[in-house]
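Sequence in, structure out. Go.
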Amino acid sequence: MKSRTLFQWFSRHHKSLPVLMLMTLVLSVLMFFLGKMSFVREIESKTIDFRFRIAPKPERADSSIVLVAIDDSSLKYATGFGQGWPWPRDYYAVVTDYLKQQGAKAVLFDMLFDEPDFDRADLSSEESDGRFAEALSNPGIAVISQILSHDPTALDSTMLRHSLAMAESPHPVSSWAGSQYPIPLFAGSAAGVGAVNLVDDKDSIVRKIPLYYDLQGRIYPSLALCAYLLTLDPSIEPSELLTSIPQIGKAELYLNWYGKGGSAGVFRYLPYSSVLQSAVATVYGNSPTLADGYFKDKYVIIGASAAGLMDLKSSPYSWGIPGMEVWATMLSNLINRDYLRFLPDGYNYLILYLVILLVLVSVSRMKSGYSILSVLVLLILLNVLAFGLFSYSRIVMSLSSPVLGLIVSWLFVLTLSYIMEGKHKRELRMVFNRYLHPDLVNRIVENPDLVHMGGEELDCSVMFSDIYNFTGFSENQSPQQLVSYLNEYFSTFTNSILDHNGLLDKYTGDGLMAVFGAPIARADHARLACLAALAHRDYSLAFRDLPSLTPSQAFHLNTRLGINSGMLVAGNIGSERRMEYTSIGDTVNLSARLEGVNKVFKTHIIISESTYLQVAEEMICRELDYLRVKGKKEPTRIYELLADRSKVNSGEYDWIREYATALQLYREGKWTEAKAIFETIYQSPRNDEASHTMAIRCEYLLQNPPEMWDGIMSLVEK
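Output:
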């Protein structure tokens, strides 16, 4: 029972803002944690790649970084001198000396020198390695590489000095047990040793690189960070610097790529052969191919780009770029503090929450076409915001989670709406099938927003009916017979109501209450009520000349109707266990009173002034009186509905003017003159019972003149 009550409550309130906000909270928390799962993070990485591709920033790549590539042309150049790969170390020594001489700020070798050189016919390994070691030493601008591994190895003492002076890492850091490090001769000579381990995602794209690593309890920098630290003021503590760099994962920097890679990309490339030629020319006093001072204050990264040397990587822009471009990008990020900045989780969650809330509100409260449009607009705005932040500020807003949240919440609210609206439509059909014409029921079911079941104020016309002398007739009938007669009577009477789009509100014993203009508001409710009343009267008149009448036919001939128009409240009224759609208000009460006034004037259809004013151009009516009905302080003008102007000859009702003249005399207190006219109208062929009633009233007033006369009679009976 409790679950049913809860479901009923939810079905009524699932579109309310507090409930939508609660559902948003649940969905947003689920989507937020779903966004932390690996497959969603992979999707997010792809969206960041796409943001890079549509918003490259080649102008922001640091121009002080020069890449010296051991490319195919350089390998061919060395082969011309009888040197195959690997080259002797003095090839690197002469270039390193040359770069020092030219004023380079730092020289980075994205190459591994973990074994001594081998003897050649004209050069011993000791001599070759010695020359390179000498070039690596003073002044200390050269950084060489190491590759970390999880296989334990013993570190040479020359490596210990290259660890960072940090008590502990400010961020979680990846741990390693061993290293392929440079031979001690080089490790002892180089200004720094940087690790070159990359973090490749499943698709092999390099998106992030550890800034530093934990090797056997000591912190060692990456190649780019090592070179960057060498160029800083020695008084700057590494830990102080590292805390200012935005890091993700295990002390990783998410690379801020600038654009297309390779020799035609954002960084300046030189073939190693060109630099080697200039270095040799300088040694021998010849003219170098590169201008003097070309490398002044430059960061020079030396690495392989030839396909056969197997050092090719992928970026969001390009596949097969030299690995040294990864370090060039990281170094440029560090030099210029040009980092990607990720929105904090709190902001990402807030965006996710707002997106889901807007989807739930728009789909649950808007029409289908508008809701789809609003969701599409929201999706576009979400992407514009994400790409705008990235393009102008390199701020990374989570996109996969809110888009996934938008899709999931959209499907969720569509499913919920389908379930709830299906239930709502079934309820509407069940409620209104008994009261309305099937065509109108179908219209309501197709568009439930036309009806507010919770109650709304509507401008309507209300009809009440009753049967003359039904009480006297029923005294002589058995209950079974009486019910049978009434069912036959109502089955035809109801058609007049439903065929004119009336709402059959309720049966009241021998009468009924009908409302026109509810549950769907319409401006012509008064006309429809009058047409329904006339349709029933015309149906009844067909029995007038029959020699004998069935009880049902007699009921039709003796039916009296009261119609009033005005504002009322319509909606589901009742308790949880018993509820029905009905109407309440003063408009309803006056309509019931007008039905009873028919007894006074012996008429069949009386309408109020508010109804008359709406149908005066279409219906023939006559003003009956100006009176106070029982229970009302304010007087009201009442009219008898006689005919539809479009279906009769208006000349047949010229006598109405005579009645109006008599009524005016009556109100002026000229009862003798008024009585004479009323009696004339009462005579054959018109036999107007209302005129007879007024004539009797005039006689009464002549016999019992009131002290003050305002032309208004007060009825003491309903």
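Check: The mean pLDDT is 88. DSSP finds 25 helices and 26 strands in the chain.
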